[in-house]
Amino acid sequence: MTRPITAGVDGTEESLAALDWAAREAVRRDLPLRVVHAWRYAETLAAADRDTQHRWVSEGVTEAVRAVSERHPGLTVTTDVVEGAAAHALAATAAEAEMLVLGSRGHGRVVGFLLGSVGQQVVAEAARPVVLVRAGAAPAAEAAGRDVVVGQHGGPEDSAATLRFAFETAAARGAAVRAVRAWTLPPVFAYSPGSLKLLDDAGGLEPYEKQALAEALQPWRERFPEVPVAEHVEMGSAAQVLLSVVGRAQLMVVGRRARRTAVGARIGSVAHGMLHHAECPVAVIPHE
């Protein structure tokens, strides 16, 4: 089954930037584009009944799609106006998509759903990759020699989905991948005889981390031999190290393992830090 790239729109500058980004990515990957607007009837708009509000929303989506279709005449585009809670509707559409693309903040005329509590919930609950795009994300940055930067952690299986997305995206763009692995000194009590032997065999902590990154990258280097790869291993927190190289990125790719708490969904400190501080688009990939 061919999955579309899905863009959530609400008429804001941010969501239109996300739509443009999604359209360009769909063209690169030769995939259809699905445009979704999630809305709820607003009783406060007393002069407008449900049908009138629905017509407003549909007209706005149609206008946005018309502009995208003119820029990409060969692109197959479908639209959906879905009534209901925005987070639930968008997370549901993500399950059927290659990726879901959203603006990073803002509120629309009828309802806003972008990054904030609802946007965070979508990122945390979506079963597929979610890409967040800020207003003003320039297409020129995608062709300016910048890398697709990806955070890697743990063993090869821990970051497989994240690395796959990064390499597929870089291959579609003719870009390089910059793989980043951050490490910190573990507390003494974390050492075990087995881990000490692994460190000794590797020649120390930093060589061990470099070896771990190389092993995680090896299957993806073999699968995508045309994609140049730079390896970056640095001591520090993952968020700090990734942000230190964000200026080289046309796209930042990070994984997340969502968890539920009494106050709602949490997406992890690394994804949270990238979404709030990275100026380039950020792709958040659910762990498999």
UniProtKB/TrEMBL annotation:
Pfam families: Usp. Residues 1-134, 153-286 form the UspA domain. InterPro entries: Rossmann-like_a/b/a_fold, Universal_stress_UspA, UspA. Signal peptide: none annotated. Belongs to the universal stress protein A family. PANTHER family: ADENINE NUCLEOTIDE ALPHA HYDROLASES-LIKE SUPERFAMILY PROTEIN (PTHR46553). This is Universal stress protein.
